Amino acid sequence: MKILLLVLAVALLGYAVYAVIPTYWCKWCSRMPVKTVAGDHRIVLSFDDGPDPRYTGRLLDLLRENGVHACFFLVAARAERHPALVDRMLAEGHQVALHSYEHQNAWCKTPGYVRRDFEKSLAVFEKHGWPLVFYRPPWGMINLANLYYCRRHSLRFTLWSVMAEDWSRHSTPQTICKKLENRVKSGAILCLHDAGGDAGAPENTLQALETALPALIQAGYTFQKLEEETL
């Protein structure tokens, strides 16, 4: 029994060192991830989990109407299925970045899986000629392999400073909009979603942004792309 408990303790410690500690160190302590940008009243609008043909095109329409550029963290497998949406993002002045190949939690993945995830993702971006500088892991969860391959492929590890829980079925356009207006401040990187989450969640995000974008612009905020602030 003592041996079994010792093995279990070693395994738990190894797991903590591999995944749990790196994740929370990067979120709370490390200056390595990009979490904010410089400049008074400058903010970055970013979207995770897309593209999704049900929502992303409409989001691009809304951004164009408001003269706002954003950074789209793409799930590479979805981008491969809908390359025209990614091409449109770039043509309209937005930035694209990587959000993994198939949106899996890194806490449950081996180094071999992480290596293949990066390789398949990079192959998609290279095949289509999409520029790639920034990487955001799903849910902000990482392990030591994520950090290694991110550095090996010269990608900038990026998180966020403002979320509005727009992925939740408990959120409404009104609550999302209110959270954005209350939480945004100079230098913020906003993390929203144009796909994924609970059923219909991106629809709430779209409706919220119809109000929030003009309100943030009226408040004097300028939307920047990550590459303009961090490179």
Describe this structure in words.
- The chain has 231 residues and is α/β, with parallel strands linked by helices.
- It has a single domain (2-230), classed as TIM Barrel (Alpha-Beta Barrel), CATH 3.20.20.
- The chain has helices at 2-28, 56-66, 76-81, 83-91, 111-128, 144-152, 173-183, 201-218, 226-230; strands at 42-48, 71-74, 95-98, 134-135, 156-157, 162-163, 189-193, 222-223.
- The strands form two sheets. Strands 1, 2, 3, 6, 7 and 8 form a six-stranded parallel sheet that branches.
- Helix 6 (144-152) links the parallel strand 4 and strand 5 (156-157).
- The model has no long low-confidence stretch (mean pLDDT 93).
Provide a quick synopsis of the model.
By secondary structure, the protein is of the alpha/beta class. It has helices at residues 2-28, 56-66, 76-81, 83-91, 111-128, 144-152, 173-183, 201-218, 226-230; strands spanning 42-48, 71-74, 95-98, 134-135, 156-157, 162-163, 189-193, 222-223. It is 49% helix and 12% strand.
Annotation, overall tally of beta strands: 8
Number of helices: 9
CATH superfamily: Glycoside hydrolase/deacetylase
Order of helices and strands: HEHEHHEHEHEEHEHEH
Q: CATH topology, anyone?
A: TIM Barrel
Give the mean pLDDT: 93
What's the overall geometry? globular
Given as residue ranges, the uncertain stretches (5+ residues, pLDDT < 50) are: none
